[in-house]
Each structure stands twice: as C-alpha cells, then as structure tokens.
Design brief:
Protein name: Immunoglobulin domain-containing protein
Keywords: Membrane, Transmembrane, Transmembrane helix
Oligomer: single chain
InterPro entries: CD300_family_receptors (IPR050671), Ig-like_dom_sf (IPR036179), Ig-like_fold (IPR013783), Ig_sub (IPR003599)
CATH class of the largest domain: Mainly Beta
Number of domains: 2
Helix content: 10-25%
CATH superfamily of the largest domain: Immunoglobulins
GO molecular function: transmembrane signaling receptor activity
Subcellular location: Membrane
C-alpha cells in the first residue's frame, strides 16, 4: 500500500478527511464529502457554519430532517457523510464537517468555499457520474488557476503523474484543450464507486462515481394465443385471452347470419308457394271430375 494511503487511513481513525478549498459559482449547488473513522459510525454528524469553530452555528444534522438549502446524508458502509448546499450565496464560505462525541470534544474538519459570480476557478461537468461495471470514464477538469494537477480518491491515494492507479483502477491524466485536463479511469469495477476529487494547486473539486453491475438479459417464454385481431390489447397482462371481439369480425358474422336467414326465408316461401299451387291444382281437378 502506498505511503499516502496509509497516512490517510491512519489519520481517518482520529479525524475527518474532506476537501479543503472549493471554488463554486453563486446560485449553484455543491456537495462536500466528509470521511470519518470507523469508531464514529453510530455517531451524529453535522454541518457547522462559521470561520471560528467555537462560534460556528449548527446548520443540519443526520438525526434531524433536512431543511432549506442544506441537506446531509450518511453512508455508514463507506464511512462518508455528505453535505449539500443549494443556491449558494456570497456568505456561504466557511464551514466545518463535524461528528458529535458524547462526553468529549467533537471531531471536526474545516473547509472553505470560494464563491464567485463568474466561472469557478476549478470545476467539472457533473459532480455525480454513473457508469457500468467494466466501462471507462473520462472526467474533464476545467481550471483557471495554476499549480500541481492531481486526481485523488477521498481517504485513499492520488495520481499526480500522467498515469497510475487508485485502489486497483488504472488512471490516466492528460492535458486537453486550453485550461482543461482529462482524467480517464479504465476498467471500472463496483469497488471503484466512491468520492474522488480533481485538484489544481490549492483548489479541489469533488466528484462522486457510482459503478453498477451490467444488467443481464433474461428471455421469458410466452404462450402464443389465437385472437380475432392481432391488436396487443386483446391479451391480458396475465397471458390470458380477453373476451374482446373485433368489430369487423362482428359485422361479418352478423352479415353472414342475415344472409342465412334470408335464404332460409326464401326457401320456406318457395316451398309454401309450391304447396299452395299444388293444393289449388288438386281442387280444380276434383271439381271437373264431379261435373
């Protein structure tokens, strides 16, 4: 394991790890991840606002409902709680990620938001990215400041050269167009899911990556039904045929029935006429014989 990864893990036991300096645009939103030690899983986490710790004010806690522009969520599996601030204002600058310690001093870590009315000095296209297992992912990090270029996983390790790896995932960093560097993560795995950040100088921009399993295709056998019409609506959801009858078929059947009735009536009328004629002929013959 790399030295900085060991240091991060050891430091995470007794403190909180987060991004220290983030450039944001007024009116937008930002999510900040805060990594904490294993012993704090069941503790209450919260966001505190203010430059000085002793005078900062509670904003939102994990044991309370989210309200207003602020929200907080806790991922006990990865030991990261995330705070989100919406509709950023000029005064949204100084905050603390904190963990409540019953009977002792709370554990905390400061982060600063540099709010600007123009384009942020370091930003990405999307803070939330989802990919499938085995995919490659490229993140564009746009910057206007100077300093060292990095791609890091929160609490694990960083890549500072053109290529390297983080937790078994290959990482390539290349300079793109003017004032942008591209980070490519190859062969993503579900274990690659988590919080990362790109850095330029003192600025950092967190990015959350979610890697999901590739969906499998399942073929389900279906029964072939004979219906009066190929319209799909004639088949019920449980695979049974409905009592629906096609109007065209109904008209044809009715026409056929009328034709049969008319032919039957015609035959009956002809037979009746024939019997009547025969009876009349017999009566005439009898009269003549009597005469």
């Amino acid at each position: 394991m790399q030295t900085n990864a060991v240091f991060a893990l050891v430091a995470g036991i007794h403190s909180i790890t987060t991004v220290s300096e983030v450039s944001v645009k007024a009116g937008s939103s930002i999510s900040i991840p805060c990594l904490y030690g294993l012993q704090y899983i069941s503790h209450v986490k919260y966001l505190c606002k203010g430059f000085y710790w002793h005078s900062c004010s509670y904003i939102v806690k994990t044991n309370q409902q989210n309200s207003g522009r602020f929200s907080i969520s806790d991922d006990n599996t990865r030991r990261i709680f995330t705070v989100t601030i919406n509709d950023l204002a000029d005064e949204d600058t100084d905050y603390w990620c904190a963990v409540e310690i019953n009977g002792g001093a709370d554990v905390k870590e400061y982060f600063h938001l540099s709010v600007t009315g123009d384009t942020p000095h370091l930003y990405v296209d999307h803070q939330e990215i989802t990919r499938l297992n085995g995919d490659n992912l490229t993140i564009n990090c746009y910057y206007t400041n100077t300093g060292e270029t990095k791609w890091c996983r929160l609490g694990i390790s960083c890549v500072t050269r053109s290529s390297g790896s983080i937790d078994g995932t290959k990482v390539t960093i290349s300079e793109g167009a003017h004032s942008v560097f591209n980070v490519t993560m190859s062969g993503l795995r579900t274990e690659s899911s988590g919080w990362y950040w790109c850095a330029k100088g003192d600025l950092k921009m967190p990015v959350h990556v979610t890697v999901t399993e590739t969906p499998t295709t399942t073929t389900i056998g279906t029964r072939h039904l004979t219906t009066l019409s190929p319209t799909p609506n004639h088949i019920l959801e449980d695979g049974q045929q409905s009592a629906y009858t096609d109007p065209k078929s109904l008209i044809i059947s009715l026409s056929l029935l009328i034709s049969i009735v008319m032919v039957a009536l015609l035959i009956w009328f002809m037979l009746r006429r024939h019997k009547q004629t025969k009876a009349e002929s017999s009566a005439t013959t009898t009269v003549r014989y009597m005469d």
